[in-house]
Amino acid sequence: MDWISEDQIMIVGLGLMGGSYARALKRLGFHVSAIDKDPESIEYAEKSGIIDRGYTVPEPEAVGNADALIFALYPGVFREWIREYGNLLKPGARITDVTGVKKCIVYDIQDMLKDDVEFIASHPMAGREVYGVKNSTDKLFTDANYIVVPTEKNTQGAIEWCKGLGRLLGFRKVSVLSPEQHDEMIGFVSQLTHCIAVGLMTCSDNAHLVDYTGDSFRDLTRIARINDAMWSELFMLNREPLLEKMDSFISEMQLLRDMLSSGDTEALREKMRLSTERRALFDK
Amino acid sequence: MDWISEDQIMIVGLGLMGGSYARALKRLGFHVSAIDKDPESIEYAEKSGIIDRGYTVPEPEAVGNADALIFALYPGVFREWIREYGNLLKPGARITDVTGVKKCIVYDIQDMLKDDVEFIASHPMAGREVYGVKNSTDKLFTDANYIVVPTEKNTQGAIEWCKGLGRLLGFRKVSVLSPEQHDEMIGFVSQLTHCIAVGLMTCSDNAHLVDYTGDSFRDLTRIARINDAMWSELFMLNREPLLEKMDSFISEMQLLRDMLSSGDTEALREKMRLSTERRALFDK
């Protein structure tokens, strides 16, 4: 199965991310169905034309009809779904996901699936500080990065299919990482940054500062509006890499603090020059 | 002297900030002159109509003709300028600044000035990661905060005049803080955030992450492109408040780290909920 317009695609979990996938895939001409336990989300998505057909439970016929399924669920819920309904999947179906951690989930899901269904993991590096299908948008992926996360069990065909999905959705750059490399990377660029934003917001009472602050503080704390259920789960599932990144960042802050305390301006300037040089690489 | 269109305004230091003031004041119809030691900046600004008249040295006649002067210099250079040329200022002239630290400079400048000139300090909470008059823009102030920083030496007239300047320039909100309150505040919302951005950029080699990163990392490190000469000077001049803020942030990060390490999900979620609640106040 390659990407052909007759494909029946099912989104499992119709929130911000699932809804954004649905919108982008509908626009491309695919038949898109969705399952979400919240009837309001399904009703809204059907009425708005975000999906062709919606379900609040995994109807065997609907699930068995899908050529491709995209799971946009919390990691634990994703695992339970596969355990309970994996047998409904169509032989030859391909499934992928949007899960923010990989090592703890990808191998398990692959082991649980029957042999005629292939799970190729992926991670769209995109998000917003708002939730739900109503806030979804097919613009979410423009200029964002997409990571395909294969294991040794994956076929080259499925890897290429998943890369194709990233390109179809309009991601700026599609890359491939192992689950271990992915979790290392995500511990730094995503999880550590969320910890920092939260820590900056909670380290002192700052509500009175709103009339004085500039854009720096706003930028550093944009992601401090955080879904506590989802992110605490993601943090716990990637505990070792994240702890390592936090320790390395805390040490660096301590080092900068000591440079300031001892009045070592030249050492501080050297750090600032390194920072400036590295950050230039990240300009879009 | 109130704000009247016949006012002769002089900008001292025609970089990003001085240039942005010049553009905004010219648009409002004031006669704007500028001093900058760099002939290219002056030539560019004259040719582009950003200023009416430019000088590369403090010509006594030009300085003595200005009703109001805005100093957009590094703190140390500002102090030297007043020491050397303060006697050229017109009796009755008002001066203000854009300096990012206050306690260490405001009292000194006020003491150095002759009695017939009043310095009322202010701080426009706006900036960009690019430099020089060529990057200046009168849009810099829209939606930004402006802080007037009086001491006991300031007259109510000068305070009102300076607030008026903030409003004329188009700032969203004009506030008043003492030099000590200002430096406390700035240590947190501006200096600590810059330390964090630098620390995140320098704590590990991350150049290879550019193909994977999402917007979180980009947002948190936008200000990691940093003018090392200026910011190291600002940090050193506000060392005590900044050290206190850094210590409080480092402790909080250590606390979050320990919650993660001990698997205390509920404590982490509580921090995330507090963070979310506080951050909502900062939405524009």
Structure description:
Two copies of one chain form a homodimer. Chain A has two domains: 8-177, Rossmann fold (3-Layer(aba) Sandwich), CATH 3.40.50.720; 182-280, 6-phosphogluconate dehydrogenase C-terminal fold (Orthogonal Bundle). In chain A, helix 4 packs parallel to helix 5 (103-112) and helix 7 crosses helix 10 (239-261). The first copy, chain A, has 284 residues and is an alpha/beta fold. Chain A is built from eleven helices and nine strands. The two termini of chain A are 34 Å apart. In chain A, strand 4 (68-71), helix 4 and strand 5 (94-97) form a beta-alpha-beta unit. Helix content of chain A is 50%, strand content 13%. In chain A, the strands form two sheets. The first copy, chain A, has a six-stranded parallel sheet. In chain A, strands 7-8-9 form a three-stranded mixed sheet, covered by helices on one side.
Layout of secondary structure:
Two copies of one chain form a homodimer.
Chain A: E1 8-12, H1 16-27, E2 31-35, H2 39-47, E3 53-55, H3 60-65, E4 68-71, H4 75-85, E5 94-97, H5 103-112, E6 118-119, E7 121-125, E8 145-149, H6 156-168, E9 173-176, H7 179-202, H8 215-221, H9 228-237, H10 239-261, H11 265-280
Parallel strand pairs in A: 1-2, 1-4, 2-3, 4-5, 5-6, 8-9
Antiparallel strand pairs in A: 7-8
